[in-house]
TrEMBL record:
This is Galactitol-1-phosphate 5-dehydrogenase. The keyword Oxidoreductase applies. Residues 23-124 form the Alcohol dehydrogenase-like N-terminal domain. Residues 166-280 form the Alcohol dehydrogenase-like C-terminal domain. One of its GO terms (molecular function) is oxidoreductase activity. Keywords: Oxidoreductase. It comes from Roseovarius faecimaris. Coiled coil: none annotated. It comes from the Bacteria. Transmembrane segments: none annotated.
């Protein structure tokens, strides 16, 4: 089969590789659509030791099983028996694996092998391009669920999302779907803001335009020093900061303000299997909108897609590759 292989820093090769061999309880999924994630970009830039070259990246996939079912893929493989799994927090499984990290190759390929329990069937009215968004949306759905559990009902009046990439857009949509009516999303890129200036139910703004405003829930979907500082300043006393982004750095949080104002900070990672299923249900019944904030390219054009993302030339929050 053909795959897009990460072979070294800023190097991707579209080349022939051996077909995956499903293990016990696994099925072969022929990939129709696979999204480029920020973590793929980190690996591409040589910033992720967990993803050493050579490796097939990509974990946001949807396709067709060997027995003909249209499915979207939960790429997080867990043991089901450890303390975290038994508690329903399987995203914290002590032996968790995710495709696109050794020992599991990713979905930037014509096929991938997955445990059958990690597959969710896709109804006919949902395209596989839309279905491939389940993974990034589930990340944000999980974060929003944790945030809403951390604040009382009367402190869920408004929310700020910092970052207009796929995770940020998904967070804004998840906030709306889970009952927060006033949601603002900020992004410094005017191309991105123009693209997102659609009737999605949330407000799109330049970061400078919300300076001085305060929000009950703040989502940092970027995770740099500057965005952590912005989140610290923007969160209302007694509110919650949801830190999803893994941009880098270790500074930014205003610990004095967080302490004096009893602001809760929650680091969130991926999603539970139930969160993934709940996300799919919300996507399939239309609660997360038309899911039309993507651009599609062929897998063979993957290297140029990465270059365009890095240079800020793409307006869409998500590029989906088609093998």
């Amino acid at each position: 089969m053909k795959a897009l292989v990460y072979t070294g820093v800023e190097t991707l090769e579209h080349r022939a590789v051996p077909d995956p061999e499903p293990g016990e309880g696994e099925l072969l999924v022929r990939i129709d659509s696979v999204g480029i994630c920020g973590s793929d970009m980190h690996a591409f830039l040589g910033h992720d030791d967990r993803r050493p070259a050579p490796l097939i990246l990509g974990h946001e996939g949807a396709g067709v099983t060997q027995d003909g079912r249209r499915v979207t893929i939960n790429p997080l493989v867990t043991c089901g028996t450890c303390r975290s799994c038994r508690a329903g927090r399987d995203n914290l499984c002590s032996t968790r694996q995710i495709i696109s990290m050794p020992p599991r190759e990713g979905a930037f390929a014509e096929a991938v092998a997955m445990p059958e329990r990690n597959l969710v069937e896709v109804p006919d009215h949902v395209t596989l391009e839309q279905a491939s968004l389940a993974e990034p949306i589930a990340v944000s759905w999980h974060a929003v669920r944790l945030g809403l559990e951390a604040v009382p009902d009367d402190m869920r009046q408004n929310a700020l999302v910092i970052g207009g990439g796929a995770i940020g857009v998904a967070a804004a949509l998840s906030l709306l779907a889970q009952g927060v009516k006033d949601v603002t999303l900020t992004d410094p890129n005017p191309l991105r803001r123009a693209f997102l200036g659609l009737e999605a139910g949330y407000r799109v703004a330049d970061p400078d335009s919300v300076l001085g405003a305060q929000f009950d829930i703040t989502v940092d979907a970027v995770g740099f020093d500057a965005t952590r500082a912005a989140a610290s300043a923007a969160t209302h006393p007694g509110g919650v900061i949801l830190h999803i982004g893994l941009g880098g750095g270790a500074a930014g949080f205003d610990i004095r303000r967080i302490t004096l104002q009893e602001i809760t900070v929650i680091g969130t990672y991926t999603y539970t299997a139930q969160d993934f299923r709940d996300t799919c249900a919300a996507m399939f019944d239309g609660r997360l909108g038309p899911l039309d904030w993507v651009e599609t390219r062929s897998l063979a054009e993957g290297a140029s897609a990465f270059a365009d993302i890095r240079s800020g030339k793409t307006s869409a929050p998500k590029i989906i590759l088609k093998p």
